[in-house]
């Protein structure tokens, strides 16, 4: 294997990053384990992202009929289950930054789909609630998303669906166990 000129392991003046030099000088480990791409398998993270991307495209296309984006639908869906969330809580439920949620809520409020009002006790906290118009819109949107979910899962029987659900739950819990409140967790190698 030829070493690119920018990554010369004999570069004693360290123009090549130390990590690159170390990796190039290192030989194979004694106990080489099969990687996630060996035996024809793609990494699970890649497959999850592929599914998420395809799901997002399908949802975007269908929700466009209701003049909603997928993040807007996610906010309405979360508020339908937990009325009165703050913008920050809603951002966490929808996996977006608070600034992004603020923009989403401004759009939904402009369409009269949500109302924002100060919390009755904690006046600095603003609660978000669905309007009647949003409740009317949410039913058909949920049905459209259910059809997309069904299309996604059509190749799985009931046991396969249950196994997928349980496996994804365990994957999420495994990664969340490493998360700390500030979003940084310990190294996965510990």
Proportion of beta-strand residues: 5-15%
Q: Report the CATH topology name of the domain at 70-144.
A: Arc Repressor Mutant, subunit A
N- to C-terminal distance: 32 Å
Physical arrangement of strands within the biggest beta sheet: 1-3-2
Instruction: From the alpha carbons, calculate the radius of gyration and give it in angstroms.
Output: 24 Å
- According to CATH, what is the class of the domain at 70-144? Mainly Alpha
Strand count, sense and barrel status of the largest sheet are: 3 strands, antiparallel
**How many helical elements?**
7
Number of strands: 3
CATH superfamily of the domain at 70-144: Winged helix-like DNA-binding domain superfamily/Winged helix DNA-binding domain
What is the residue-mean pLDDT, rounded to a whole number? 82
Helix content: 40-55%
SSE run: HHHEHHEEHH
Please mark out the parts with pLDDT under 50 across 5 or more consecutive residues, or reply none.
1-9, 14-24
Report on this structure.
The protein is mostly helical and 190 residues long. The protein has a domain at 70-144: Arc Repressor Mutant, subunit A (Orthogonal Bundle). Helix content is 54%, strand content 6%. The chain has seven helices and three strands. It has a three-stranded antiparallel β-sheet. β2 and β3 (126-130) form a beta hairpin. The longest helix has 22 residues, at 132-153. The chain is globular. 13% of the residues are buried.
């Amino acid at each position: 294997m030829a070493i690119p000129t920018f990554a010369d392991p004999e570069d004693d003046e360290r123009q090549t990053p130390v990590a690159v030099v170390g990796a190039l000088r290192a030989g194979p480990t004694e106990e080489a384990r099969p990687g996630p791409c060996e035996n024809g398998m793609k990494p699970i993270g890649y497959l999850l992202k592929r599914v998420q991307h395809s799901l997002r495209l399908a949802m975007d296309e269908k929700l466009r009929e209701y003049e909603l984006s997928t993040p807007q639908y996610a906010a309405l869906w979360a508020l339908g289950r937990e009325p009165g969330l703050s913008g920050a809580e809603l951002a966490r439920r929808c996996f977006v930054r608070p600034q992004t949620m603020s923009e989403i809520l401004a759009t939904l409020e402009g369409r009269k789909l949500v109302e924002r009002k100060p919390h009755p006790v904690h006046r600095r906290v603003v609660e978000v609630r669905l309007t009647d118009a949003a409740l009317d819109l949410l039913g058909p949107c949920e049905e459209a998303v259910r059809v997309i979910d069904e299309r996604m899962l059509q190749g799985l029987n009931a046991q396969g669906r249950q196994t997928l659900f349980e496996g994804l739950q365990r994957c999420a819990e495994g990664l969340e166990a490493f998360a700390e409140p500030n979003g940084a967790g310990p190294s996965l190698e510990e």
